[in-house]
Amino acid sequence: MIDLFGIARQTEFLRKAVDWKISKVLDHGQYILGPEVQELEDRLSEYLDAYVVTVSSGRDALLIALLSDGVGIGDAVAVPAFTFPATAEVVLACGATPVFIDIDPHTWTMDPNDLREKIEVNPHISVIIPVDIFGVPADYESIHEIAGPARFVLSDGAQSFGSKAKGWVDARALSFYPTKPLGCFGDGGALVTGDADQAASYRLLRSNGLGPHGQQYDYGMSARLDTIQAAVLLAKMGMFEAELERRREIVSRYDEVLQKHDQIIPQIIPTGVQSAHALYTVRSSSRDKLQDRLSEAGIQSKVYYPIPVHRQPAYTYLGAVCPVAEQLCNEVLSIPCHPYLTEDEVEKICEVLSEPQ
Ligand SMILES: *Cc1c(COP(=O)(O)O)cnc(C)c1O
What is the CB < 6 Å shell around ligand 1? Predict the structure, then answer.
């Protein structure tokens, strides 16, 4: 079976480096906020040219950013209808209300026009959380223009470590969940910001609201990244750029094949940005048949996401209207584009993609 994420192959490849890094942690025994956490934050900070605060997961990164911004009861937060449910769940966790925004039919990221219309109806929206779905950066330039200076733009970059976006955001949340472009061996995440005070606030919130001298001003969370996970990520960081380059190569092969196909349509990457290629996702009106054909050829594929978030039982009472997201959920299919695919495997996937529907 050609695996969707290729984690076992990557582990095999990096086994020695990871074992060595983990054994160093066992030697010093500082399992919480040990030296590897600082080393990773420094490394990520250099790579992203911003302050980086590692945390326990992508979900907790989003929640900490909202808590730090003072989001609470009575606030409305704009989220796209097509995303992993955690993007909206953190809004509930703060006591605020999500406002679901439809997506662009080509890029599948938050539709700025729908955002504008929904802000007109809901002027109380204080925060906007665009999602870089499957690694493709959201349209931050347009969103920022619509948001205005008073609204906080929090990028859900859980799937987009390694991408290059256009436009400015107040903060960005990353996830190191094992299947994300940079994944650890468990849960992990980070917050990225250009603001030193904001980074300091995130540090307080991830450690029970305790400051560097043990002073407590408010409550926080117990949401640090484990030292062992930081060690795993450090071992993987060295390979990351080469992996991304390989993903790009594979994706351009698929794109080439699908150019001649008018029934299988890939996600569109806008000009001027770079995707992290977390997943290669296509839409097709005969999605289930395509999935059957891939499965017969021994190729794993998966539907991300079968249910638009506004149709989840937790949110139906809101009565949100997002028709593009709804249709997309019936048509999308994600196929393997991980960097450990062999040439033969890429060829095999191209063959199935090029067959008539
Ligand atoms: C994975 C993911 C999250 C949550 O990240 P975790 O690390 O699993 O908590 C949030 N948003 C999106 C878009 C995701 O893909």
Answer: 57-59, 83-84, 86-87, 131, 156, 158-159, 175, 177, 187, 189
Say what the alpha-carbon torsion angle 246, 272, 308, 258 is, to the nearest 10 degrees. -50
266: Cβ contacts below 8 Å, ≥ 6 apart: 254, 255, 258, 280, 281, 282, 283
If one counts every other C-beta atom within 10 angstroms of the C-beta of residue 345, the result is 18
Structure tokens at 286: 């005969």
**Quick check: bond before 140 cis, omega within 30?**
no
* pLDDT of residue 22 exceeding 90: yes
Per-residue confidence band for 3, with pLDDT thresholds at 50, 70 and 90: very high
Cα(45)–Cα(230) distance, integer angstroms: 14
CA-proximal residue: ligand 1, atom 1 (nearest): 158
Residue 91 near residue 316 (C-beta atoms within 8 A): no
214 CA distance to ligand 1 middle (Å): 30
DSSP letter, residue 267: P
Give the integer Cα–Cα distance in Å for 87 and 101. Answer: 12
Q: Tell me the pLDDT band of 150, cut-offs 50, 70 and 90.
A: confident
The answer to whether residues 221 and 64 touch, using CB atoms and an 8 Å cutoff, is: yes
Q: For residues 65 and 157, is the Cβ–Cβ distance under 8 A?
A: no
Pocket test for ligand 1, best of 90, 91, 136, 177 (most atoms within 8 A of CB): 177
Model pTM score = 0.98
